[in-house]
Amino acid sequence: MSLRDHAIVISLILIGIIVASIKCVFRNEHASPPGNLFQVPRRYPIKHFAKWKDLYGPFFHFRIFGRRFFMLSDLSVAQDLLEKRTSTYSSRPELPMAKLIGRDKTALFLPAGSRLKETRKLMIAFLNARSEEFYIPVLEGETYRFLHRLLREPEDFFRNINSLPSAIILKLVYGYQIDYEDDYFVQLAEKLGRLTTEATDPGRWLVDSFPRLQLLPSWLPGMGFKNWASEARSKCEAFIRAPHEFVKSSVAKGQYLPSFTSLNLAKLPLKGNDYEDILIHTSASLYSGGTDTVVSTMKLFFLMMAIHPDIQERAQKDLDLLIGDERAPCISDQSSLPFIDCIIKELLRFNPVVPIVIHSPEKDDIYNGYLIPKGSWVMANIWCMSHEASVYPEPHEFKPERFDMNSEGSIQQSDPLEFIFGFGRRNCPGRHFAERSLFMLIASVLWAFKISPEKNCNDQPRVPEVAFSTGHTVHPLPFHCSFQVRSTKSVAVIEELVKSFE
Ligand code: HEM
To answer: Under which pathway is this protein filed (predicted)?
Structure first.
């Protein structure tokens, strides 16, 4: 047989496998909706899954190419499995494409096991409340720098929003100060984020459904994913390694800012051989986990403030009373500004940045009489939980006041932060740090600026549209708004603060 004949035979075998798998989707299984890959739209799949909840209830299952997916759309079901049985459900499903591009050692994609334990231990020690002394000065300093940039280039606020979490994390994790105009590491990191999102895009890569495709030679038709993955892998490696090497050479020269990497590198001689590799990938995980999520919430904050002047004014009254215009807010003001915390809760409820989280059981399990086999995709639909009308009346309205304290001193509606950051042993290690970062940003921006919709040529406000991207993390689409300084004194305060942080 010629090379071409071989290719045709192998292609036919592949088509055969795919057709057989599609057939199995339509096989009538107990308790499974007639769902298949082609009914789930690539854009806004969450809303589609929400409709399935109405049809099939809060716990349903479907199969795609022989893989089993279990959807948990109700908080109590998610807690039953992912929290009460966390020792079974703390793994992740296999994602061959993430492995091919070298992201399989990233915390988010690690299966349960000793490497995950070590990685999470490092992250939690760095991000929990006891480490605040280390990171608060950086959070405050970079936020004041952000205010300064907003003063000077308000029209560029989207670019500056993208840079703030990167500036904070790169400084904390690698002791690296970014160049806001054009930074090599930030560009590498953005590439890393884009490639990871593409590589883990559900339904995009056949190899994720048929892992054995990896074993076939690259020259066969349909194997283009292999070349794509190998190019992507070298770009991902560049970001993962380069900042780590930067810390090592700065430490060797004795010119460095203490950071997560430098502090842990110092422990290297006491640890085993794998430790440096774990450290490299943990640092990259902190970057990937801590930038995109915070950027999305910051964008939503600006969008909601432009649309809701009443909410903005209420928060500003509190800020004026507590702080005035002779000093800027700082982290220690958080406990005295409860309405800012209500805004944070409502931002994260209104648009849960990670709308669906995916866990996987390490062994077969039975729930409500149904078998959940080892390795299945168990997906908690956080978006459905945060839009449950019986818990959050008028769920599509932005209303921070739903989290005001009642007369007994507890918040009026359930706290969404209890599930927005995920579940059990895989919950977000950055939760505390994220809440601190968002408080610092929101309090500082509202203290300094009034945010309004842009005006059109007839001087009429052009209220921005509330629309979101789709993907593993969900972002507001680009919009415009305008900023007015609230007090000339606060401008002087910002100028002074930025000088003192130079
Ligand atoms: C608005 C802010 C954030 C939100 C809404 C958020 C949400 C989440 C969610 C839902 C998960 C998956 C949990 C699960 O599977 O049960 C997660 C995982 C993770 N997050 Fe966050 N996150 C945020 C900020 C951060 C920050 C600031 C960092 C680090 C600096 C971070 C680092 C991580 C990491 C490393 C994981 C993977 C943990 C694992 O798989 O074991 N996140 N986050």
So the answer is: Secondary metabolite biosynthesis
| 138-179 pLDDT tens trace | 999 999 999 999 999 988 888 899 999 999 999 999 999 998
> What is the Cα–Cα distance from 54 to 442, expressed in whole angstroms?
36
Identify the weakest region by mean pLDDT among 12-21, 273-282, 407-416, 470-479.
12-21
Confidence category of residue 409, pLDDT binned at 50, 70, 90: confident
> If you take atom 32 of ligand 1, which residue's CA is the nearest one?
289
Nearest to 427 by CA among 129, 116, 1: 116
Residue 156 and residue 180: Cα distance in Å, rounded?
A: 12
Half-sphere exposure of 49 (CA within 13 A, CB side): 27
User: What angle do helix axes 275-307 and 224-253 make, rounded to 10 degrees?
Assistant: 100
| Residues in Cβ contact with 67 at an 8 Å cutoff, skipping those fewer than 6 apart | 209, 376, 377
Stated as kind and residue range, the H or E segment containing 68 is strand 67-72
DSSP for residue 485: E
Domain that holds residue 78: 3-501
Please determine, for residue 18, whether its predicted confidence score (pLDDT) is greater than 70: no
The answer to whether 147 touches 444, Cβ cutoff 8 Å, is yes
**Coil, strand, or helix at residue 481?**
strand
Contacts of residue 144, defined as CB under 8 A and 6 or more positions apart, other chains included, come to 328, 444, 494, 497, 498, 501
Other CB atoms within 10 A of residue 303 CB: 23
- Indicate whether 218 pLDDT > 50: yes
The 10s digit of each residue's pLDDT in 109-133 is 999 999 999 999 999 999 988 889 9
Q: Does residue 20 surpass a pLDDT of 80?
A: no
Residue 24 among known ligand-binding residues: no
- pLDDT single digits (tens) 223-254: 889 999 999 999 898 889 999 999 999 999 99
Q: What's the one-letter identity of residue 61?
A: H
d(CA 203, CA 205): 6
Is the Cα torsion angle 189, 195, 199, 202 positive or negative in sign?
positive
Task: Report the number of distinct structural domains present in the chain.
Answer: 1
Q: Measuring CA to CA, which residue among 122, 161, 176 is closest to residue 437?
A: 161
Domain of 364, CATH number, reads: 1.10.630.10
173 contact partners, CB below 8 Å, separation of at least 6: 243, 259, 260, 261, 283, 286, 287
With a Cβ cut-off of 6 Å, ligand 1 is lined by: 107-108, 120, 123, 127, 285-286, 289-290, 293-294, 297, 348, 353-354, 357, 359, 420-423, 426-430, 433-434
Ligand 1 pocket: which of 377, 428, 437, 438 to mutate (most atoms <8 Å of CB)? 428
Whole-Å CA distances, 385 to 6, 144, 147: 51, 35, 34
